[in-house]
């Protein structure tokens, strides 16, 4: 066994040396029995997976059922109940003691079942997100789940990826990795393939990538040397204590509410005990009543019900393609007021296709037939248009994608896949080109230069020299480094007038909603030459990505919900404006701020009225840098906005962290973006964000409804006892009856309210104020009003039973007990919104409510009908007159409450 507890591979299994950074990459690959150009085959992967185990770290200890059960008894309230049971037993009240123990057990059982379901739901949710890696196996590229990696796998990485195993680099191009998780160094570390000294510190091992770090720039290829707990991260993780589970703002507010209620009710219980002793009542009964009252008036099931509601909401969001990573995000979603949305893949279909190549002679388009291109509608012969072939070759060579993915969909950036598909349409194969003109060097895409370049052996048809340069990038950037332009009869100087013409052509294409790239190249004699100079412009490429069909409706839904949608993109302003207009971002022409204007407005500082107004009125923010995204989010948050931000790249990670809700793309997003985000869209669809906001509002409304319900029920209990004691009347409720009511009338209806589907018009409301507590002043007024109505009904029924009806003390207590129980059950219907129909609303449409009422009614009738239960609860069988009193008095508070709603009182939300 290894120190990690993972079985070591048998002696004959290929293994990397103890210090793979000290030996050449080829030697490491040889030691692991893999040819880098081919990778492992499926059979060998299966064998190594069996030998080394899955590539996973030891997971946080799973909460066992026993731990969940024990946790139910760790509270002040349970201690109070235990004291009551002990005192009852000491004074010979064995039935009372046994009953309290039974209630303790039932409360624990309810809490155990509900909390266990919540815990298991959260554990299941954690398994929904999967990290993937790009590997070379059997000579081709494939995307596999990271836990399927084995030592010897050939892994390809690029900017934005999370490193999923310890990797010895074989190739690297401008590669940098963020290793702060391991080294504490905040700056990215440069990476290269040559070995380093065997005694080099971890931070100095430039030829190694480590599991759990991230690629901040460049691209590279390497061989996996360690997986799972044998990685550096695995070794460190054994020394790290398991972190405490995060509590959400909502949970903290509920905890503070519960703590206040504990002290308030303990104080009331003390007053009741004092007045009872003054009145000469048996002090044991008074003590038990005071303790039971303290328990009854605190909604002990509230945190569990809140957890269940949140976990259920997270599950429902996952079913709707929104994977929420944190419970706190569920609460914040309902308050979102601004969505900063990316363009590509969120508002558009992310289905890139080359619409055409614009040459000096005109527009070349892929033909509708089996292959080839047309030039201004006529068939184009590549032999007569060598610069068209050269442009397609540059598009294929300056490219890190592959067409060999599963289902023929391609692997890599959709834009690069589209370029490969266009080249293949004309018979230009990347694989054949790379064999004929191997890549010598790559300069990875840089957000600052907005270009990518590669150097290859051999030269294209028009260029001389031993090497050729292939460059693609943003038209304005590429045009700056071009000195010539390709024509059918050769390259010509790119003069000022012609340069201006190309710039205008770029703007015209962008206005059509196309994503525009420039392709350029040159012949070169020197291997170490600078790539971005003296280039020949070959063509502009227009790529189309049509708007998503459902986006316009989703944006309209946001507008109704009071949520502003702002497009924030790195694309050109004219392209973004065209897409914004197509998806209905505004009623008219979108207002756009881009480039230098953006920098000027942000540099003016917050508080400058003119700049702030221009920023906050803009519908589209184009050519936005990562630093500007952070500043934009900060400016909006200073104005009190709750900002949701979408992103997919490594450069988006800071903004995703800064936003109140970071939303990453699940299909095209980088692993760094997903790790930084609060929510991941599994379908990359904007409409999914709107659905998640809807679910967030429903969840918060449900929590507010059951908190209001629980507290109004519990307050009615304390008022019934308190008012009766203050008047010197007999106690209308006994301790065990209070405990029984607390169990029956609180838990099940509250759970049902937490499972509600929400009001149909929930997206037509304005976002709630995030600073607003769970219960605002208006809710406390409603809560108090409901409790007073129930209290008056119960005490009225109790007085009627003792007076005009002439019932015995036990029968009168039974009347008050049943009146309170059924009044609390019918009280669930008071949780509907004012203005909703009396018989068809979010409460009456909730099947869980009817199930809870049926169950609770059966339990109450069983308590009255069964002799053993009657004895334990000290209640009696009632005659018809008494049942009429119970029915009338228990319905009265709800009828009055509904009348109040008709007058616009008692609002829940």
Could you explain how this protein is built, in words?
- The protein is an alpha+beta fold.
- The chain folds into four domains: about 150 residues, Calcium-transporting ATPase, cytoplasmic transduction domain A, CATH 2.70.150.10; about 220 residues, Up-down Bundle (Calcium-transporting ATPase, transmembrane domain), CATH 1.20.1110; about 160 residues, HAD superfamily/HAD-like (Rossmann fold); about 180 residues, Calcium-transporting ATPase, cytoplasmic domain N.
- It is about 45% helix and about 15% strand.
- It has 30 helices and 26 strands.
- Helix 22 links the parallel strand 24 and strand 25.
- The protein starts with about 25 loop residues before the first helix and ends in a 7-residue tail after the last helix.
- About 50% of the residues are buried.
CATH architectural grouping of the largest domain: Up-down Bundle
| CA-atom Rg in angstroms | 35 Å
| The number of domains | 4
Shape: elongated
> Spans with pLDDT under 50 lasting ≥5 residues?
1-11, 125-129, 239-248
Could you give me the name of the CATH homologous superfamily of the largest domain?
A: Calcium-transporting ATPase, transmembrane domain
Integer average pLDDT: 80
Report the helical percentage: 40-55%
């Amino acid at each position: 066994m290894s120190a990690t507890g993972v079985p070591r591979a048998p002696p004959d299994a290929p293994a990397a040396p103890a210090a793979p950074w000290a030996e050449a990459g080829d030697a490491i690959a040889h030691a692991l029995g893999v040819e880098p150009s081919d990778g492992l085959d499926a059979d060998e992967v299966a064998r190594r997976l069996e030998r080394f185990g899955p590539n996973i770290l030891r997971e946080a200890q799973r909460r066992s059922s026993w731990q969940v059960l024990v946790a139910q008894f760790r509270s002040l309230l349970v201690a109070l109940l235990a004291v009551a049971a002990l005192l009852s037993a000491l004074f010979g009240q064995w039935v009372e003691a046994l009953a309290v123990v039974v209630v303790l057990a039932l409360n624990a059982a309810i809490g155990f079942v509900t909390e266990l379901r919540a815990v298991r739901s959260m554990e299941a949710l954690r398994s929904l997100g999967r990290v993937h890696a790009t590997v070379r196996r059997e000579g081709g590229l494939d995307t596999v789940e990271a836990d399927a990696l084995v030592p010897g796998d050939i892994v390809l990485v690029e900017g934005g990826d999370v490193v999923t195993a310890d990797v010895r680099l074989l190739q690297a191009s401008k590669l940098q990795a963020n290793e702060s998780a391991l080294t504490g160094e905040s700056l990215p570390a440069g990476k290269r393939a040559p070995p380093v000294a065997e005694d080099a510190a971890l931070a100095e091992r430039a030829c190694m990538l480590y599991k759990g770090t991230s690629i901040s720039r460049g691209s590279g290829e390497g061989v996996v040397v360690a997986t799972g707990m044998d990685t550096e991260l695995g070794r460190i993780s054994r020394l790290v204590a398991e972190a405490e589970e995060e509590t959400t703002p909502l949970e903290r507010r509920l905890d503070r509410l519960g703590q206040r209620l504990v002290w308030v009710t303990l104080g009331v219980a003390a007053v009741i005990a004092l007045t009872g002793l003054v009145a000469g009542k048996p002090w044991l009964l008074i003590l038990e009543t005071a303790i039971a009252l303290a328990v009854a008036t605190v909604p002990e099931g509230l945190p569990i019900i809140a957890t269940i509601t949140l976990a259920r909401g997270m599950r429902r969001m996952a079913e709707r393609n929104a994977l929420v990573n944190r419970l706190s995000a569920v609460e914040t979603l309902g308050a979102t007021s601004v969505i900063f949305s990316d363009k590509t893949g969120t508002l558009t279909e992310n289905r890139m296709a080359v619409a055409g190549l614009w040459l000096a002679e005109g527009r070349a388009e892929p033909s509708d037939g089996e292959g080839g291109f047309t030039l201004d509608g006529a068939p184009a012969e590549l032999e007569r248009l060598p610069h068209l072939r050269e442009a397609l070759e540059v598009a294929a060579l300056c490219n890190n994608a592959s067409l060999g993915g599963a289902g023929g969909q391609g692997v890599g950036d959709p834009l690069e896949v589209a370029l490969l598909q266009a080249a293949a349409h004309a018979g230009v194969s990347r694989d054949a080109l790379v064999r004929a003109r191997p890549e010598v060097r790559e300069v990875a895409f840089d957000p600052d230069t907005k270009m990518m370049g590669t150097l290859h052996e051999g030269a294209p048809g028009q260029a001389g020299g031993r090497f050729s340069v292939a460059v693609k990038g943003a038209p304005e950037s590429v045009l700056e480094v071009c000195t010539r332009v390709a024509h059918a009869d050769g390259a010509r100087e790119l003069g000022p007038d012609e340069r201006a013409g190309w710039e205008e052509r770029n703007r015209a294409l962008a206005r059509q909603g196309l994503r525009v790239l420039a392709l350029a190249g040159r012949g070169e004699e020197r291997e170490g030459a600078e790539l971005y100079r003296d280039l020949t412009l070959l063509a502009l490429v227009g790529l189309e990505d049509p708007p998503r069909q459902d986006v316009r409706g989703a944006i309209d839904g946001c507008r109704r919900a009071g949520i502003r949608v702002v497009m924030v993109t790195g694309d050109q302003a004219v392209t973004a404006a065209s897409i914004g207009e197509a998806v209905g971002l505004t009623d008219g022409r979108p207002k756009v701020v881009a480039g230098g204007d953006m920098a000027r407005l942000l540099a003016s500082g917050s508080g400058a009225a003119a700049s702030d107004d221009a920023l906050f009125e803009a519908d589209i923010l184009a050519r936005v840098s990562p630093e500007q995204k952070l500043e934009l989010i900060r400016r909006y948050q200073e104005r009190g906005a709750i900002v949701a931000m979408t992103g997919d790249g490594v450069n988006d990670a800071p903004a995703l962290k800064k936003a109140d809700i970071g939303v990453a793309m699940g299909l095209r997003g980088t692993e760094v973006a997903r790790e930084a985000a609060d929510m991941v869209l599994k379908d990359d669809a904007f409409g999914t964000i709107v659905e998640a906001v809807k679910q967030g509002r429903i969840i918060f409304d449900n929590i507010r409804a059951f908190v209001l319900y629980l507290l109004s029920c519990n307050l009615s209990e304390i008022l019934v006892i308190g008012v009766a004691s203050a008047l010197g009347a007999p106690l209308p409720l006994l301790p065990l009856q209070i405990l029984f009511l607390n169990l029956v009338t609180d838990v099940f209806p509250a759970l049902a309210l937490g499972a509600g589907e929400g009001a149909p018009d929930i997206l037509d409301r304005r976002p709630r104020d995030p600073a607003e507590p769970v219960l605002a002043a208006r809710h406390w007024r409603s809560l108090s009003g409901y409790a007073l109505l129930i209290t008056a009904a119960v005490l009225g029924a109790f007085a009627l039973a003792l007076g005009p009806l002439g019932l015995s003390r036990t029968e009168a207590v039974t009347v008050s007990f049943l009146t309170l129980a059924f009044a609390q059950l019918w009280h669930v219907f008071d949780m509907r919104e004012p203005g909703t129909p009396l018989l068809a609303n979010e409460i009456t449409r909730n099947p869980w409510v009817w199930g809870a009422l049926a169950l609770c009614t059966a339990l109450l009738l069983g308590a009255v009908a069964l002799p053993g239960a009657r004895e334990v609860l000290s209640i009696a069988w009632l005659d018809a007159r008494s049942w009429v009193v119970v029915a009338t008095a228990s319905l009265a508070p709800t009828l009055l409450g509904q009348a109040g709603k008709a007058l616009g009182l008692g609002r829940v939300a």
